[in-house]
Amino acid sequence: MNRTKGDEEEYWNSSKFKAFTFDDEDDELSQLKESKRAVNSLRDFVDDDDDDDLERVSWTGEPVGSISWSIKETAGTSGSAPEGREQLKGRNSFYTQLPKPTSTYSLSSFFKGRTRPGSFQSLSDALSDTPPKSYAPELGRPKGEYRDYSNDWSPSDTVRRLRRGKVCSLERFRSLQDKLQLLEEAVSMHDGNVITAVLIFLKRTLSKEILFRELEVRQVALRHFIHFLKETGDQKLLLDLFRFLDRTEELALTHYREHLNIQDPEKRKEFLKTCIGLPFSAEDSAHVQDHYTLLERQIIIEANDRHLESAGQTEIFRKHPRKASILNMPLVTTLFYACFYHYTESEGTFSSPINLKKTFKIPDKQYVLTALAARAKLRAWNDVDALFTTKNWLGYTKKRAPIGFHRVVEILHKNSAPVQILQDYVNLVEDVDTKLNLATKLKCHDVVIDTCRDLKDRQQLLAYRSKVDKGSVEEEKIDAILNSSQIRWKN
Amino acid sequence: MACCAELLLSIDLVNADKLAGRFRKYKVILTPQKFYACEMVLEEEGVYGDVSCDEWAFSLLPLDVDLLSMELPEFFRDYFLEGDQRWINTVAQALHLLSTLYGPFPNCYGIGRCAKMSYDLWRKLEEEEDSETKGRRPEIGHIFLLDRDMDFVTALCSQVVYEGLVDDTFRIKCGSVDFGPEVTSSDKSLKVLLNAEDKVFNEIRNEHFSNVFGFLSQKARNLQAQYDRRRGMDIKQMKNFVSQELKGLKQEHRLLSLHIGACESIMKKKTKQDFQELIKTEHALLEGFNIRESTSYIEEHIDRQVSPIESLRLMCLLSITENGLIPKDYRSLKTQYLQSYGPEHLLTFSNLRRAGLLTEQAPGDTLTAVENKVSKLVTDKAADTRWNLAQISSPGKITDAFSSLAKRSNFRAISKKLNLIPRVDGEYDLKVPRDMAYVFSGAYVPLSCRIIEQVLERRSWQGLDEVVRLLNCSEFAFTDMAKEDKASSESLRLILVVFLGGCTFSEISALRFLGREKGYRFIFLTTAITNSARLMEAMSEVKA
Fold first, then answer.
1. Quick check: A232 and B339 CB within 8 A?
2. A40 Cβ partners below 8 Å, 6+ apart?
3. Which residue of A39, A124, A333 is in closest CB contact with B174?
């Protein structure tokens, strides 16, 4: 970046392309269309498809007589392996279609990187035009082929058919051994969809205890089952399962997770209360307890402050109306809020910052950072000052910050503190280089000048002289120092 | 979108309609695959028949001349967190489709459990369908499958090549990006396609961000000069200019001002968040020095409530590069995180631990000597002891799926072995990159790309045993070569890289660079484009 810095700056400052604007409606329109087309290329598959041998999806909501256009017969296997299931009859009246002729598009042009316009289009087409045989699973069957074949399939055949998305009855697998064989076959195929399909069947046809017992020693299947229960929201069975497996921590977390679905704060609070005794890890137990206490506090504070605000008697609420409710906010946000609206309250109230700090064992660092941000926002500089002032046993006061004064300066600057205030804190930065950098950046002239003097760095002071306004107090001060005979400059 | 939760929502609509006496027919189209679980949900909710379910086997979206996406962002969470293998068949189908189009793949390599399963299932598909690929000349010489959990580190780093940076800043969706008013310098947003057809973008996409300014301003000057030529033209020349050159110039101008706007906006945002210091911390983590300093940097990030995703990302980076956090740090960072961003993130931490992204070192677990013994049996700490017990008690029956998921990352050892942190004398010249590390300012060669490079060089995993062991992947690194080699030398230069669980633009840029250096051409197939924020959001239990 250094190399061209000069160029760049000049460039960024000067041109910004305001000089020549050829904004052309057509250009933008066509571009919009172009992007839209590409993004919607999904739909293009449908729209561009004017071959009649494909059915279309009906979006009108009328009874649709066909399976969508994209689902095609698996021509290759239909002859040799007829099958069916009663259930399908009702909703499909779908007849064999001729597969579309193989596309003449070549994808290789795509990969060889030719950027012929519309190559995306052709790729899309190519993808939808390739013989469907290979990847479009078969759903519908010619009517004549519905017969009951449910006895014919071995576990491995069944699993293979399921994998191809075919409907396949599992009812004949009645003995536990058969069921487990089916499950193991599914697992060995690695196809999660099939594993879940078998699990749905097992869930329906086995007692909970047997199912759990068998899953416990089949980790892949168990994972799928847990995910399936999570997705379908079968909380009760999931909890039973974790209990059976003695996975207590997951049990607790799963239960706790439910609070996210409860909107009403009172109800949420009550629910969290039921979570407190659950077998979390020791660490998480404390967090859940804190969660409950926090929400409890927030409910009290919220009710109180809403009342204060609507009464209109309290100055701080009139000057700075609340932007949002404090309910369900994180602890740090709550602390900020307390420091903003309730800073001076005695420790006895729920809303006092000190009370929050003690209750939740907020570390000093975090507390100071948050209080600083809140008080600086209100431009309460005395409070800021007090935050960092400590007295030692002899009664001397000293400034101390657990977060490093450069951070303090940064936060003050963000809240547009006046230079006088900034200056005091820049001076407290220990590392001289950091101090000088900060002071220069924030235009704390006195700090820069004094630091240069202390460093006996004449050259830097001279350089700085050119940066201050001509005839200003700062310039005078610099000149006075430069002319002083007391200082033994190092350069 | 084949997600039961979403399906349940639409079912609520159907049932509401029914209650109100409105009887209608509904159609749900699931892509790329309809799951048995979905149909079961329909049946259970009593709307089977009212709602018919179709499937659109749409598996590949070409995002660019060398990039195919399956657009399955949910793949990452489903597999790497939940252990659900539902998408493996989808991947196998996609491979099958590609091999139908391009002939067989003569050389196959892969690493990772998911890679192995997908590959096996794909082979099975090929066997079942007496495919017409047999006897065809292969067009793609090599295919490489890689699981995302082989390399979380790369995906967790801040991106600094232009395309990656645009993705991190504005989020590229399906190959296009929404540039807001701050970029377009007008009052409207603009949806822009980002691919090789955008001439300006194509030239800067793989460049380190620091080069982009120079390039764009040079380009702007050239453009200005070309416009200026019209002064002093006679009428005939002007006619020529307008009819032949103007349109191209205007197009270029439009693109140029867009990308300049994007750069400005990126610069503004990055300066605000103190990007320099952030990058410095990341590099320190990658190299493994000043760990204390980095830890307190992260702590401060959390305390100041800087974005929750960013804080989480840094914690994960610290955890993976250090083989887990020391318990004291883990506790204190977690507590502060919950205080800053909300206690419900308890659930997020549990997820991250399960996925192996953010773990706690077991006491006395810091020495590499212990590594072997520990990683053999103990998958991960106390949370999973129950499984281990189960495995030990009946080892024969267990098809132990997830021991690979929560294993130690061994990043430091791998990094040393593969030389991921280049030794640099003097300044790394980002204008003329010398290796793939340029995508991370010369500080780090992406692990995923290095693995691919090494395997392609050897045409096998030979000599990489130690690395494979450190990756906890001894059983899942494979090579498969065709016996008769009919592949033309041209096709042997073409390599399909399959990322399972997502890849980042930085990785794509790095491999494009490798391709240029070694005379390969890479094509990428990914389950989705990802970046650190997407990974973290996928693990987050709390919706923002």
1. no
2. none
3. A39
Q: Which long-range contacts (CB under 8 A, 24 or more apart) does A316-323 make?
A: A316/A340, A316/A341, A317/A341, A320/A378
Question: Taking chain A, what is the end-to-end CA distance rounded to the nearest angstrom?
Answer: 31
Q: If we measure between CA atoms, which residue out of A213, A253, A110, A310 comes closest to residue B98?
A: A110
pLDDT higher than 60, residue A460: yes
pTM equals 0.79
pLDDT > 70 fraction of chain A, expressed in percent and rounded: 69
Lowest mean pLDDT among A168-172, A214-218, B502-506: A168-172
* Tokens representing residue A402 in the block: 């657990």
Average pLDDT (B120-137) is 80
| DSSP codes, A190-228 | T-HHHHHHHHHHHHHHS-HHHHHHHHHT-HHHHHHHHHH
What's the CA gap between B108 and B110, in Å, rounded?
Answer: 7
Flag whether pLDDT at B170 surpasses 70.
yes
Spell out a b/e string for A338-371, using b for 16 or more CB atoms within 10 Å of the CB, else e.
Answer: bbbbbbeeeeeebbbbbbbbeebebbebbbbbbb
B61-64 and B67-69 beta bridge pairing: antiparallel
**And the tokens for A465?**
């002289």
Contact between B355 and B539 under an 8 Å Cβ cutoff? The reply is: yes
Tokens (6 digits) for A220: 């892949």
Residue B235 has a pLDDT of 87
Contacts of B24 in chain A (CB under 8 A): 61
Residue with tokens 């006061």: A397
Interface of A with B in 24-53 (CB under 8 A): 24, 27-28, 31-32, 34-36, 38-39, 41-42, 45
State the best of A12, A332, A377 to mutate against chain B, taking most chain B CBs within 10 Å: A332
Decide: B193 and B276 in contact? Cβ < 8 Å.
no
Q: What number is the average pLDDT over the span B382-398?
A: 36
Residue A26 has pLDDT above 90, yes or no: no
Q: How far apart are the first and last CA of chain B?
A: 20
d(CA B448, CA A255): 38
Per-residue pLDDT tens digits for A333-392: 999 999 999 999 988 899 999 999 999 999 888 999 999 999 999 999 999 888 888 777
CB A442, CB A409: distance < 8 Å:
yes
Nearest CA in chain B to A254: B347
Q: Phi first, then psi: give them for residue B145, nearest 5 degrees.
A: -105, 135
Alpha-carbon span A273 to A290, nearest angstrom: 11
In this prediction, residues B207-228 reach a mean pLDDT of: 90
Query: Which residues does chain A have within 8 Å of residue B251's beta carbon, measured at their own beta carbons?
Result: 27
To which H or E segment does residue B116 belong?
Answer: helix B113-128
Q: Is B499 helix (H, G, I), strand (E, B) or coil?
A: strand
Smallest CA–CA distance, residue B413 to chain A, in Å, is 30
ipTM of predicted assembly, 2 dp: 0.88
Query: Which amino acid type is present at position B94?
Result: A
Instruction: Classify burial at B483, counting beta carbons within 10 Å of its beta carbon; exposed 0-12, middle 13-18, buried 19 or more.
Output: exposed
CA distance A476 to A258: 69
Task: Quote the CA–CA distance of B168 and A455 in Å, as a whole number.
Answer: 43
pLDDT digits (tens, 9 = 90+) for B18-63: 888 888 888 888 878 888 888 888 888 888 888 887 888 778 999 9
Flag if A111 and B191 touch (Cβ within 8 Å): no
Nearest to B57 among A108, A137, A224 (CB): A137
Q: Are A227 and A215 in contact (CB under 8 A)?
A: no
Distance from C-alpha of A58 to C-alpha of B494, rounded to nearest angstrom: 42
Helix/strand/coil for B143: strand
B29, β-bridge pairs = B54
> Can the peptide bond before residue A137 be classed as cis, meaning omega within 30 degrees of 0?
no
pLDDT tens for B470-509 read: 999 988 999 998 776 677 888 889 999 999 999 999 999 9
